[in-house]
Amino acid sequence: MHPRDIGLDTMSSPIRNAFLPHYLYIPLQQHIGSPAEAVVAPGDVVSRGDVIGKASGYVSVNIHTPLPGKVIAVQDHVTATADRVPTVVIEVEGRFSLKGQVSRQTDAWKSLSRDEIISRMKEHGLVGMGGATFPMHVKYSVPADKKITTLLVNAVECEPFLSADNRLVIEHGEDLVTGIEIALKALGVNRAIIGFEADMPEAVARMRGLVANRSNIEVLVFPVKYPQGAEKQLVKAATGLEVPSGGLPLDIGVVVSNAGSLVALKEAVVDNKPLFERIVTVTGDAVEKPGNYKIAIGTRVADVLAEVGLKKKPARIIIGGPMMGLAQYSDQVPVTKGTSGILVLSARRAAVYRHRPCVRCGKCMTVCPMGLVPLLLVSRVELGMDDEAKKHGLLDCIECGCCSAVCPSERHLSQAIKLGKLRHVAKKREAAGD
């Protein structure tokens, strides 16, 4: 299946710099793993690129400030996941430096060792920018018993309405190629595949031109199909290999990285620029000036919307895309490293689910990319039979939302399955004594 995105196309919108906010709310938990620990206190003056949160363990990364200013608080603040996490609040002021702003295409990085590259990933706060926010240094620290053969670059961007990666490839293709070369060295392999969807012709042409003389980098174009960009689906389409249930791509010799993550890798290694800003697609029928914006991490959604303007009263604000994104109850949530889109919909475009009884039509089964039976999983979860749901593949669900999208009864299938997975994780933590 592929959801329609009529009237909300930003594919041709060039990247623009968003305005600089007066205040930044920078969460210390923007990645999978342990939150960073604050190394600043109220009253401290910080400069662009300074570390304000130090990685607290192996599965953790540093957090940096994108703008200079004064720390006015370290307090709990709401994020897009509805969690309240320790957050550094900065009043933006002072002299703005150009650290990491000027791209320097040099080959000095080629003298770095694999360990030095991986160390810079952690120091510069790099995480997967496709949504998972898994620390990059952990992903690239491949266990000795795993043999990696291929780097798979995910430029598919299959979520409707989102086009940040498309514009990034078109406008910063050279940086992506350099990032791929750095990643290949970190992995110790010499083969990369870049995957696109067929509705990205300009990005495809741009990348094919840049890698025409590189025999180790292949560009593949896939049919427009959701969720083509999901990790396991992309691996199967690009390599013909299937990631085993409960496994990871590295189990079959593949490491997957988002295109934006690899541009950030280039900027970290070549330009000494931490990950403190990112490209975000801001769109929706309620938005006055939709487009792709470079936004400082810590900028509140309310501040972003004040710049782009609203032409209709927003009924729903979604962080991410319409299929896997999270609807928000507050516009005070900040942009983080994992924010790929801000979707603002009017009442006319925002779906209202009535959640009627299941009619056993089987449509959810036909669209599930993992071959699961969502109606069965949901019935088990609703009855509290989480162990039984697990036997039927609960943990294999990728939460793509396809089942919910096609359900004629408008049941909250994907959300119910996610609830079951969250309960499973909670039970494991309780059993471990956490």
Q: Order of strands across the widest beta sheet?
A: 1-14-13-17-15-16
CATH class descriptor name of the largest domain: Alpha Beta
Helicity, as a percent range: 25-40%
Mean pLDDT rating = 93
The rounded distance between the terminal residues' Cα atoms is 40 Å
Total domains, how many? 3
* β-strand number: 17
Shape: globular
CATH architecture of the largest domain, by name, is 3-Layer(aba) Sandwich
Relative strand content: 15-25%
Low-confidence stretches: none
Structural class: alpha/beta
The CATH topology of the largest domain turns out to be Rossmann fold
Order of helices and strands: EEEEEEEEHHEHHEHEHEHEEHEEEHHHHH
Largest sheet: 6 strands, mixed
What is the CATH homology-level superfamily of the largest domain? NADH-ubiquinone oxidoreductase 51kDa subunit
H/I helix tally: 13
